[in-house]
């Protein structure tokens, strides 16, 4: 029956060419596919790294343009100082500013300086004489 | 800017490239080698793929065409189907396919390539025309003529086989 049908049906060469298309072995397809995918993965990985690097650079530039880097660094420094204080507290040292406009109001009063008058020694010539600062003797 | 990867889904591409190569050089290890070579080149030059110029399969077939054209000529051409079993032992359908495949090998290079691109790689006449840089109409006419020659060759090939089968029944 099949033979009869084949003999009497019009032969479709195009369908035959499509249907009889050579097929590769599954093993070959699997190996080649794995090879292609492996190569693609490494490429995607390097692209990903490049993308992340570029994004980081853009973010740094954007931050630097508004002074974010300085702000971030000072914040980090403050945080570090705070942590240090918490971890190892030390005695507080009060620093008094010495050069201040207000400091004169609170400084202890200074003692008045009294000038000592040395007494003149008597005798032994003019060399050791120290004249007291007094008015000159009235002569007139 | 990131480009579309032409080899993102390789499995159907492998099948189509293999079918094209096998129609041109015959089914078997040679076709596998040339398909592998095509994909190696494609991996190496994947950055050169331009989606504006066509589909990934057309790009790959262009590479495959160069691989097939550049291969060393074999001592014995069109002998891929010489080792087949006796047609009497095989089913009719398998015999017919083998006869068609053998008829394809008797065509000249140009006809064989057109048949391989149209029925192996499943390209449209328009895609083939883009690949060759020709007009679609010209490709359709060339395909029609190639099919006519193939039909004639197939008739010559099938006659003795049918007679042989009939005698065995």
**Please, how many helices of chain A?**
5
Shape of chain B: globular
CATH class of chain B: Mainly Alpha
Name the average pLDDT of chain A.
76
Strand count, sense and closure of the main sheet of chain A? Answer: none
Largest interface: A-B, 26 and 34 residues
Structural class of chain B: mainly alpha
**Oligomeric nature of the chains:** heterodimer
H/I helix tally of chain B: 7
Radius of gyration of chain B: 18 Å
List the domain count of chain B as a whole number. 1
Largest sheet of chain B: none
Query: Which outline of chain A best applies?
Result: rod-shaped
Task: State the helical fraction of chain A.
Answer: 55-70%
Please tell me the overall pLDDT of chain B: 81
Fraction in beta strands of chain A = under 5%
CATH topological fold name of chain B? Butyryl-CoA Dehydrogenase, subunit A, domain 3
What is the rounded distance between the termini of chain B?
67 Å
- Which segments of chain B are poorly predicted (pLDDT under 50) over 5 or more consecutive residues? 75-80
Number of strands of chain B: 0
Structure description:
Chain A has helices spanning 2-8, 13-19, 26-65, 68-87, 103-106. Chain A has 140 residues and is mainly alpha-helical. Chain A has a domain at 14-75. With 169 residues, chain B is an all-alpha fold. Chain B has a single domain, classed as Butyryl-CoA Dehydrogenase, subunit A, domain 3 (Up-down Bundle). Chain B has seven helices and no strands. Chain A binds chain B through residues 2-3, 6, 13-14, 16-25, 28-29, 32-33, 35-37, 39-40, 43, 47, and chain B through 2, 5, 7-8, 10-11, 14-15, 18-19, 22-23, 27, 31-32, 35-36, 39, 43, 46, 92, 96-97, 100-101, 104, 115, 119-120, 122, 147, 150-151, 154.
Could you provide a short overview of the structure?
Helices cover 56% and strands 0% of the residues of chain A. Chain A has five helices and no strands.
Looking at this protein, list some descriptive labels:
heterodimer, A: 140 residues, 56% helix, B: 169 residues, mainly alpha, Butyryl-CoA Dehydrogenase, subunit A, domain 3, 67% helix, globular
């Amino acid at each position: 029956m099949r033979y009869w049908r084949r003999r009497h049906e019009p032969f479709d060469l195009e369908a035959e060419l499509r249907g009889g298309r050579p097929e590769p072995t599954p093993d070959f397809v699997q190996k080649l596919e794995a090879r292609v995918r492996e190569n693609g993965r490494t490429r995607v990985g390097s692209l990903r790294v490049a993308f992340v690097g570029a994004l980081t650079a853009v973010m740094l530039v954007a931050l630097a343009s508004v002074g974010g880097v300085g702000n971030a660094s000072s914040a980090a420094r403050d945080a570090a100082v705070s942590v240090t204080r918490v971890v190892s507290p030390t005695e507080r040292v009060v620093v008094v500013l010495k050069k201040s406009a207000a400091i004169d109001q609170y400084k202890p009063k200074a003692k008045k300086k009294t000038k000592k008058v040395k007494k003149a020694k008597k005798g032994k010539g003019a060399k050791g004489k120290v004249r007291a600062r007094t008015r000159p003797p009235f002569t007139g | 800017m990131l480009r579309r990867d032409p080899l993102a889904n390789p499995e159907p591409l492998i099948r189509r490239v293999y079918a094209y190569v096998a129609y041109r050089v015959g089914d078997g290890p040679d076709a596998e080698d040339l398909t592998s070579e095509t994909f190696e080149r494609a991996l190496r030059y994947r950055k050169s793929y331009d989606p504006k110029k066509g589909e990934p399969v057309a790009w790959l077939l262009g590479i495959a065409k160069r691989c097939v054209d550049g291969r060393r000529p074999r001592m014995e051409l069109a002998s891929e189907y010489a080792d087949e079993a006796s047609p009497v032992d095989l089913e009719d359908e398998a015999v017919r396919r083998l006869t068609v495949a053998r008829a394809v090998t008797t065509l000249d290079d140009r006809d064989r390539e057109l048949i391989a691109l149209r029925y192996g790689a499943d390209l449209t006449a328009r895609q083939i025309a883009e690949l060759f840089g020709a007009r679609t109409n010209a490709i359709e006419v060339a395909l029609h003529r190639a099919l006519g020659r193939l039909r004639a060759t197939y008739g010559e090939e099938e006659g003795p086989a049918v007679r042989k089968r009939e005698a065995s029944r």
